[in-house]
Amino acid sequence: MKTKTFLFLCLLLGIGLTQLSAQNSNSDGTFTTTWERHVNWMAPIYCEGVEIDRIVNSSADARCVRHYKDGIIQFTYYFISGEGKSTNTDETFTFSEHVKVTIQAPFMCHTHLKGNKGTVYNISLLINQDNTWEVKNATCAGNTQ
């Protein structure tokens, strides 16, 4: 009987601790969540204000950090990286992208791409709430033909 009581107590204690660890540590609703997953990804490539290519990838690795204050999302950071292919040439690119989404649109997206044939792109886009974008800065180096 003591063994059954002890095991039952351990079970209840385990359930209680699991429930406590799932709660926010701040009672004011301030907390941060994270996740990682594979996402579909693409990037428009601009040189001198003109879209010259698109780099596409069927799956990229993404990490997300989302911060809440008073239970309301304040900002979300996305870190995306992987390998993609040009839609115009046979060049393969490694890329990293950083996006900070705030509670106010528009927000900035910064992408760095490096090709296996020497092409390098650095692009900063201003993304609007309706998912349209405006090129804020774009540099192209190397083989951009």
Structure commentary:
With 145 residues, this protein is mostly beta strands. The protein is built from one helix and seven strands. A hairpin with a 2-residue loop joins strand 2 and strand 3.
Multimeric state of these chains? single chain
Work out the radius of gyration.
22 Å
Main sheet: which strands, in order across? 1-2-3-4-5-6-7
Helix content: 10-25%
Question: Mean of residue pLDDT?
Answer: 78
Question: What does the overall shape look like?
Answer: elongated
N- to C-terminal separation?
Answer: 80 Å
Most strands sheet: 7 strands, antiparallel
Count of discrete domains: 1
The count of helical stretches stands at 1
Order of helices and strands: HEEEEEEE
Structural class: mainly beta
Number of strand elements: 7
What low-confidence regions span 5 or more consecutive residues with pLDDT below 50?
Answer: 1-24
Strand content: over 45%
Summed up:
The protein is 14% helix and 61% strand. It is mainly beta. The chain has one domain.
What keyword list fits this structure?
145 residues, seven-stranded antiparallel β-sheet, 7 strands, 61% strand
List the SSEs and their pairings:
Layout: H1 2-21, E1 31-47, E2 50-69, E3 72-86, E4 92-102, E5 107-115, E6 120-127, E7 133-141
Antiparallel strand pairs: 1-2, 2-3, 3-4, 4-5, 5-6, 6-7
